[in-house]
C-alpha cells in the first residue's frame, strides 16, 4: 500500500504557486505546480540540493548523502487514478523497474493541502505495455 502524506503549503507558497501556475485545465500548469510542491516537501523533510529536471529526472534530492530521484505525476483529482498514469520513455521504465525510483503522485493540485502518494513498482503498481500512436498533421 502506498505511503500517503498530507502536505499543507504555507499561505505564501500557496499564493506564489497559484499565481505562477493558475490554469487547472493545463497539464503544464498542473505538472509544474506538483513538482514545486514536491520540492517544498522534500526540503521540509531534510533533503538538500533539491533540483528539478536534471537529466530528464523530474526531481532529485540528497538525503543522508544519498541522491534520490523521483518521477512526479500531478492531478487536480483527489484519487490516484492509476488508469491516467503513463510512462512513456524507456529511461523512466528502467528507472522505475530496475533502479527503484518512486513515483510521487500529487493529488489535489490547486488546494492548499495536497496528498502525496509514494508509489513503488512491484508493490503499488505494475507497468503494462500498450501501443501508443502519435498524431501527424495532414499537409494539403
Summarize this structure briefly.
The chain is built from three helices and six strands. It has about 140 residues and is of the alpha+beta class.
How does this model look, in words?
The chain is α+β, with helices and mostly antiparallel strands and 140 residues long. It has a single domain, classed as Trna Endonuclease, Chain: A, domain 1 (3-Layer(aba) Sandwich). The chain has three helices and six strands; from the N terminus they run βααβββαββ. It has a six-stranded mixed sheet with strand order 1-6-5-4-3-2, with helices on one face. Strand 2 (48-54) and strand 3 (57-63) form a beta hairpin. The longest helix has 18 residues, at 27-44. The radius of gyration is 16 Å and the shape is globular. It starts with a strand and ends in a 21-residue tail after the last strand.
What topology does this entry show?
Elements: E1 3-8, H1 11-20, H2 27-44, E2 48-54, E3 57-63, E4 66-74, H3 90-97, E5 102-107, E6 113-119
Parallel strand pairs: 4-5
Antiparallel strand pairs: 1-6, 2-3, 3-4, 5-6
CATH architectural label:
3-Layer(aba) Sandwich
Estimated structural class = alpha+beta
Rounded to an integer in angstroms, the radius of gyration calculated over CA atoms is 16 Å
CATH class: Alpha Beta
Amino acid at each position: 500500500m502506498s505511503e500517503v502524506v498530507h502536505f499543507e503549503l504555507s499561505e505564501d507558497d500557496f499564493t506564489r504557486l497559484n499565481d505562477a501556475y493558475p490554469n487547472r485545465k493545463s497539464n503544464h500548469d498542473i505538472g509544474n505546480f506538483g513538482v514545486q510542491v514536491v520540492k517544498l516537501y522534500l526540503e521540509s523533510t531534510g533533503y538538500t540540493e533539491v533540483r528539478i529536471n536534471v537529466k530528464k529526472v523530474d526531481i532529485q534530492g540528497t538525503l543522508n548523502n544519498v541522491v534520490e530521484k523521483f518521477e512526479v505525476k500531478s492531478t487536480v483529482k483527489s484519487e490516484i487514478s492509476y488508469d491516467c498514469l503513463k510512462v512513456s520513455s524507456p529511461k523512466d521504465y528502467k528507472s522505475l523497474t530496475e533502479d527503484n525510483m518512486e513515483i510521487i503522485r500529487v493529488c489535489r493540485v490547486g488546494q492548499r493541502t495536497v496528498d502525496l502518494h509514494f508509489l513503488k513498482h512491484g508493490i503499488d503498481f505494475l507497468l503494462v505495455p500498450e501501443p501508443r500512436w502519435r498524431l501527424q498533421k495532414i499537409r494539403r
